[in-house]
Every structure is written in structure tokens, then in C-alpha cells.
Amino acid sequence: MGDLTPFAPWLDRWGLTPDGEPFQTRYAKNHLLAVRQGDQAAMLKIAVSKDEIDGGALMAWWAGEGAARVLAREAEALLLERLPSVRSLAAMARDGQDDEATRILCEVAAALHAPRAVPAPHNLYPLDVWLRALAPAAAAHGGVLTFSLEAATALLADPRDVVVLHGDLHHENVLDGGDRGWLVIDPKGVLGERTYEFATTIMNPDAETAFRPGRIARQAGVVAEAARLEPRRVMRWLLAHAGASAAWCMQDGFDPAAALAIAEIAKAELEA
Of the candidates 168, 176, 4, 166, which has an alpha carbon nearest to the alpha carbon of residue 81? Predict the structure, then answer.
């Protein structure tokens, strides 16, 4: 058994038994451990940053509607129901069902974006704040980032259909919940235009899939139809988000090449 130190206080407090090896997420470095609470299969997540902790509050607000159920939450610890995950949207996208996977992501987004009777969490990131890394990156590096910043600036000045956003809605963050359907995990918690939600969707599940000839334009079209959005606006938000994604990569020491390439594709589509 690996190091259980990050989980120890919560294992005791919530009466949990380890049910697998601990691991960390690739980018955020959160600590995760499959556990059982009596007969309930669950996943214990220990967040390592404020935005990940805030994401737990958003999961609780969704109350299992379009999202995995929160079983317990305190400070940096989040206990979620463990989902069957027999099917994988990423596998579907890679294996000839890309359009279907995208449509499922749009359906999940619709459930998340639906009005709720309870007020939303107070600690959501306004979209302009969420994208704030783009401006200094564009100033420092220019190129396609300049066009990404121009798109973001214009779109943010004219927001439409503002909702609570997951903020990272991609194939690996939507799990097979069996009879309950497809359910999200790991939101960032952003407040902004609904169209923005799907930029991450189009850029995923991986670079090999994203860069199939014509794939970016096709999936933007699938999103526009399934989510009832303006096709050109979808592409403009993709240009803006891809630039921001490249800025985040540079900021965190990751290779921005894929994000920059997608920004170039979006720019070319808009100029065609």
C-alpha cells in the first residue's frame, strides 16, 4: 500500500477503508484514493489548491444532478460516490464515436447549466478573471496569442447566456454513472458565457484525436448543433480558450505547442 499520510485524518473521521492504491492527478497533483464507507464505494480526494477546494463546493451545489454525488466535504477533503465507469467518452472519441461523445458532453453541460433553486456558490471565478493569464502571455510572445486575446476581449465585452460553468468539461471529467447516466467530476467553478464551456470539449480528449484532419471544425459544428449555439461564436471562444490554455501551459512548465496549434486552426477557420 502506498503512502496514506494525506488521507489519514479523513479515513478515521469518515470511517473509510482503503480500496486501492493512492495516486495523484497529472496536472493539479490532487491526492486520490479509492475507499469504501461500509457498503458504499467512494473516492476520497485531497485537494492541493484553492480552486480545487472551491470545485468541491460546486459539486455539492449540483447535488448529484449531472454530477457525481458528494458524500462528505470538509476543508481540502472531498468524498464522492465511486462511479462504475464501464464506458469511456475518451475511448469513444478515439474509436469512431467522436460525434456521439461530443453530443453526450453537450447533454451533460445542459444538465449542469440548468437553473437551480439554491443560490450558486459565492466563490466562482468570473470568466475574465479565469482567462487573465492570456493578456501577459500575448504581450510577451505575440503570434497567435494576440489573436486569441483579441477574441477573448471582444467576447467578454459582449457576454451572452451567462451560467455557472464546469470550467474543464472534457472527456476524462465526465464518467459513466451507469443507470444515472454520464456525470461530471473535477469542476473548476467559473461564471461566464455558456458557449465557453465547450472550448475544452473540442480540444480533447488528446492531441492525436484533436489534430485529425478537419476534426476541430467538425466538432465545433457538432457542438453548435447539439447545444444550440452560433457556430462562429463557438470557434471564436475556441480561439480565445486555446490561447489561454497555451498561457497556462507556459506558466506551469508544460509544452504549449498543442494549444497553440489549435489556436492557429481556430484562427484559420475564422478567416476562411
Answer: 176
| Final residue belonging to a domain, choices 63, 81, 99 | 81
Provide the domain limits for residue 162.
89-271
Q: What are the 10-residue block averages of pLDDT along the chain, 272 residues in total?
A: 87 95 82 94 92 92 96 96 95 98 98 95 96 98 98 97 97 96 96 98 97 98 98 98 98 96 98 93
**Which of 60, 81, 102 is a domain's end point?**
81
Indicate which residues carry an active-site annotation.
Answer: 168
| DSSP line for the chain | ----GGGHHHHHHTT-EE-S--EE-TTT--EEEEEEETTEEEEEEE--SHHHHHHHHHHHHHTTSSBPPEEEEETTEEEEEPP---S-HHHHHHTT-HHHHHHHHHHHHHHHHS--SSPPPTTPEEHHHHTTTHHHHHHHH-THHHHHHHHHHHHHTS--SEEEE-S---GGGEEE-GGG-EEE-----EEEEGGGHHHHHHH-S-HHHHTSTTHHHHHHHHHHHHTT--HHHHHHHHHHHHHHHHHHHHHHT---HHHHHHHHHHHHHHH-
Measured CA to CA, the distance from residue 246 to residue 40 in angstroms comes to: 40
Number of domains in the chain: 2
Q: Give ∠ CA 226-107-187 in degrees, rounded to 5.
A: 120
Same-domain check for residues 22 and 110: no
Q: Please, are residues 187 and 58 in contact by the beta-carbon 8 Å criterion?
A: yes
pTM of the model: 0.94
